[in-house]
Automatic annotation (TrEMBL):
Annotated signal peptide: 1-28
Designated name of the protein: SCP domain-containing protein
Keywords attached to this entry: Signal
Domain named SCP: residues: 157-283
Lineage of origin: Bacteria, Pseudomonadati, Pseudomonadota, Gammaproteobacteria, Pseudomonadales
CDD domains, per the entry: CAP_bacterial
Length: 286
């Protein structure tokens, strides 16, 4: 059984009058008050560093982003150990704020750009008397990724959309190719490989047991005459994984190869792994 294999690595990024922001229930914690104030601030256009910033989506309070106030070690590694794999992260330490209102005033004055940055999706807040630590982050996995079935369905639609028109993969020209059909055995083999890479923290076509794509397809029950495999790591959505493959001549060639008629694809995530999320797409010709 002939096999074509391709892999891809991914790298793995104001002071204005305000309406009252702290009219909150007395039982709300200072940390939660601060998050609510920040989200109220992000919910309206603001002037920051001499420019207008559009509305930003609210930040989600995450317990595993709540680092000790005095923590001074590696930020990403600490978050990964807590189960949060960050694409981008920033930590801000405040000293001298005795309540949430004072903490917000300091953040608005000195860190408005960070508060309004649209790349951040989550927040963690820790307080020790008049000291605060605010952690802003975006996880590897996009919030709208959905479950494995919806991701696989999206990958199938996107690969067929790519094959529907002629394409230049590096210096190799491909005519439009007929759409691929989903194969359950290839999907199972792709899921197994993505899960193994995520849980055993490696990135390669050859797995730790020495098996290659054709071996995994055969073990899953696929009896085709030719196998191709694309893998990727670090992308948070099917569209990002597909964009990376299409930008790589070898991966693009696998996607456009008219010999292949069937496909299976899957992702697996493990926030404690180096890349956080791993993708596998297996192509077959029966």
């Amino acid at each position: 059984m002939r096999q074509a294999v391709r892999c891809s690595r991914v790298v793995s990024l104001c002071l204005i009058p305000l309406l009252p922001l702290f009219a909150l229930p007395v039982h709300a914690s200072g940390e939660r008050q601060l998050v609510e104030a920040i989200n109220d601030y992000r919910a309206q256009p603001q002037r920051c560093e001499r420019r207008m910033v559009k509305v930003s989506t609210p930040l989600v309070l995450k317990p595993n982003l709540a680092l000790p106030v005095g923590y001074g070690g590696g930020l990403r590694e600490r978050l990964k150990a807590a189960g949060y794999q960050a694409v981008t992260v920033r930590s801000i330490r405040l000293v001298g704020a005795y309540d949430a209102e004072e903490a917000f005033d300091m953040l608005q004055s000195d860190y408005c750009a960070a508060l309004l940055d649209t790349q951040f999706a989550d927040i963690g807040v820790t307080r020790a008397r008049n000291e605060w630590r605010v952690v802003l982050a975006r996880p590897v996995l996009d919030a709208q990724l959905g479950d494995g079935r919806s991701a696989s369905k999206a990958l199938l639609a996107q690969v067929n959309a790519a094959r529907a028109k002629p394409r230049l993969c590096g210096r190799q020209r491909f005519a439009a190719a007929r759409p691929l059909t989903w194969n359950t055995a290839l999907g199972a083999a792709a899921q197994q490989h993505s899960r193994t890479m995520a849980n055993r923290n490696y990135f390669a076509h050859r797995d730790p047991d020495g098996d290659m794509p054709a071996d995994r397809a055969w073990d899953a029950g696929y009896r085709g005459r030719q196998i191709g495999e694309n893998i990727a790591a670090g992308q948070g959505s099917p569209s990002k994984a597909m964009a990376g493959w299409l930008a790589s001549p070898g991966h693009c060639a696998n996607l456009m190869n008219p010999v292949f008629t069937q496909v299976g694809a899957a992702y697996a995530a493990n926030p404690r792994s180096d890349k956080g999320v791993y993708w596998t797409m297996l192509f077959g010709a029966p």
